[in-house]
Write a structure and sequence with these properties.
The complex is a heterodimer of chains A (124) and B (107).
Chain A lengths: L2 E5 L2 E3 L5 E8 L8 E6 L5 E7 L6 E3 L7 E6 L4 E6 L8 E7 L14 E2 L3 E5 L2
Chain B lengths: L3 E4 L2 E4 L5 E7 L7 E6 L6 E5 L3 E2 L7 E6 L2 E6 L9 E6 L11 E5 L1
Parallel strand pairs in B: 2-10
Antiparallel strand pairs in B: 1-3, 3-8, 4-5, 4-9, 5-6, 7-8, 9-10
The chains are: A mainly beta (124), B mainly beta (107).
Chain lengths: 124, 107
């Protein structure tokens, strides 16, 4: 069974940093693209950043480019999102999500599996 | 970037009603179109991909159609479990843009 468990969220001041983690199990992690999707309180869904299984392909939304860095450690089955220079508008639940297509070289933002999410609140 | 526009934003319906939600893309997405359902306090659930392919376990009352830039999600007979927010999403390009959502409420 696929399991995705996010951690690392919390309250941070504007301009601060956080590192989110997503621990994966139940599948061969290195074969699958992963994505961070966020949802601001009461709002819709936004793909923030994605990475292919081999880390050869990465994607960043314009809203986070230059501030967020996605990475993965396939030996630890873990996905990361380093978030710097945080702003109030980054406040959201951050989900890690997985596509059920085994190809370490490609990336496409389709999500069959989701974690439960971790809440990031940026406020002074 | 590709914009996805859903209509209506809110829909009030009764159990047993036929419900249709429309999604329009700002440019061709080569039919790489998905639909998700999200209930309050829950994570999104993928219902349909490639316009009309149902995910395993999704009831057959759900169907998707369309092509080019116009797509629809239809629930043939609304059930109590279907009251939720529905999102369309393009996955033709990396941005994976979602529509703003359509909330299906009890009439």
């Amino acid at each position: 069974e696929v399991q995705l468990l996010e951690s690392g969220g919390g309250l941070v001041q504007p301009g601060g940093s956080l590192r989110l983690s997503c621990a994966a199990s139940g599948f061969t992690f290195s074969n699958y693209a992963m994505t961070w999707v966020r949802q601001a309180p009461g709002k819709g869904l936004e793909c923030v950043s994605g990475i292919s299984g081999s880390s050869g392909v990465t994607y960043y939304a314009d809203s986070v480019k230059g501030r967020f860095t996605i990475s993965r450690d396939n030996s630890k089955n873990t996905l990361y999102l380093q978030m710097n220079s945080l702003r109030a508008e980054d406040t959201a639940i951050y989900y890690c999500a997985k596509r059920d297509y085994s190809n370490p070289s490609t990336y496409a933002p389709l999500f069959e599996s989701w974690g439960q999410g971790t809440l990031v609140t940026v406020s002074s | 970037d590709i914009q996805m526009t859903q209509s209506p934003s809110t829909l009030s319906a009764s159990v047993g009603d036929r419900v249709t939600i429309t999604c329009r893309a700002s440019q061709s997405i080569n039919n790489w179109l998905a639909w998700y359902q999200q209930k309050p306090g829950e994570v999104p659930r993928l219902l349909i991909h490639k316009v009309s392919i149902l995910q395993g376990g999704v009831p057959s009352r759900f169907s998707g159609s369309g092509s080019g830039t116009e797509f629809t999600l239809t629930i043939s007979s609304l059930q109590p479990d279907d009251f939720a927010t529905y999102y369309c999403q393009q996955y033709n390009v990396y941005s994976g843009t979602f529509g703003q959502g359509t909330k299906v409420e009890i009439k």
